[in-house]
Amino acid sequence: MAVLKAKYQNLYQPLYAKRYEIVNGLVEVHGTLNNAIKDHDDGTKGIPNFWLTVLKNNEVLAHKIFKRDEELLQYLQDIKWSMMESPKGFKLEFFFNKNPYFKNSILTKIYHMIDGEEPILEKATGPPEIPARRDNLDEESADKFEKYMEQDYDIGTTIRDKIIPHAIKWFTGEAQASSYDHDGDEDSDDEESNDEDYSDEERWN
């Protein structure tokens, strides 16, 4: 499955690049997406608060976004992910415009995985930081640690598998009424859903 995800990630880079240009006002948007952004139009170029709207429209992520996060996410320009081979895992990169909150233009979150039939999260680095070791924790603390790890991994895979590939549908709200907001048989028809969703390009023409 990881190989398949990486395949689509590389295959659709041109679409991601085009989406970036539209969201950040480098090119004009036409087609059906133009109708969707009218409600968000404040006269500025591009699509204001695109990624903030996308993230808040996903149930998993919406519960983790507070007011202070919303102010920061208004500056978010793009989100990318990539596979890592050594160590195994994947990386999320959040690209920000100049803002009053931090100097770095890119925030990175890395998920280190243990190989096996079912990938297991070994550790995660990047904001928010997760303790690297769980040794010497009492049972209650260990349970909380495991739950936090699971939640953090769930957020990471949601952004990787649902948000980045289907951002346009999350922005318009279409994804909320579709299978992209639920688990179910998503893995079994992953290839089919990817083929369908990348017709989003038609919305830009």
TrEMBL record:
Keywords: Chaperone. PANTHER family: TESTIS-SPECIFIC Y-ENCODED PROTEIN. It comes from the Eukaryota. Belongs to the nucleosome assembly protein (NAP) family. GO terms for cellular component: nucleus. Residues 175-205 are annotated as: Disordered. One of its GO terms (biological process) is nucleosome assembly. Residues 183-205 have a biased composition (Acidic residues). This is Nucleosome assembly protein 12-like. GO terms for molecular function: histone binding. The lineage of its organism: Eukaryota, Viridiplantae, Streptophyta, Embryophyta, Tracheophyta. The keyword Ribonucleoprotein does not apply.
